[in-house]
Request: fold
Amino acid sequence: MAWHGARPSAALVATAFGMLVALVPSTLTPAHADATHGTGVALRSTVSTADLAAGSASTVAQTGAPRPAGVEPAAWTVLTPITAPELEPTAEPAPEPAPAPAPEPEPTPAAPAPDCAVLACVALTFDDGPGPYTGTLLNTLAAKGVKATFFVLGSRVAQFPDLAARTAAEGHALGSHAWSHQSLTSMPVEQAADEIDSTTVILIQTVGIGGPVLFRPPYGAFDEQVRLTLAERGQPVVLWDVDTEDWKNRDVGVTTHRAVAGASPGSIILMHDIHESTVAAVPGIIDHLQAAGYTLVTLPELLGPTEPGQVYRSR
Ligand SMILES: [Zn+2]
Reply:
């Protein structure tokens, strides 16, 4: 398996780091802000078939004329003329009642971000991609109208740039999972910094990520040096509180149970979109969580503004 793609050059790293620093003070401009949630309710007046029948019933009568031979009575009923009473002309025509303004179709507004201080929010997160099953997962999420967060590997983004771009374009949040999935605590600090920065660069290049880059260390492994390295770059450490262990069980039922049974308001659920069984479990996980009253959100929606170097395991 090729974890290593071509890394951005040191010059690009420096350039992008400058961009990142410039981006840090700005407020988050999440790509999900323009997402529409569900469908609006169309208000329209209706006329029932009963109304129509009542309005037309009194105008039909039979005449006394002899019916033509061979024609059944039902076929020669005719309308009886109704004489309208003559109205006195008035000097001034009565003002016509103003027609009720037709409701204008409202432009689809950007759906407001869910308020996780009020709602029972949980965030689905997918690590180690993009990969061969990511497209199927994106189809599922689109069909369900659910946004998620993807902690991608820089090497995988280099391999599947179109999937990374599609993920962002469809309103999901992307975070960094470093470049090669090696543990950052078992390498020199310069190398760890390169793992972090090269992934930041390719995220900026590929998906134009804005705001602080959420970072999830491979294996969840970090020490104080790694944390400070991230803090210098404005990046928070985002872990999880619900581990589906999907990489180990590779079982739709077990992964689903661990995700649903482990969730509580504010949870961050860990999964991996590089496993077919995980992608197959997601429709059921979404259905169960929504049936239990949870609102599924991205990490920027769940966490709100983040602090550089701060460690987050849930809301
Ligand atoms: Zn991972």
Observations:
- DSSP finds eleven helices and ten strands in the chain.
- Residues 127-128, 177, 181, 218 surround zinc ion (CB under 6 Å).
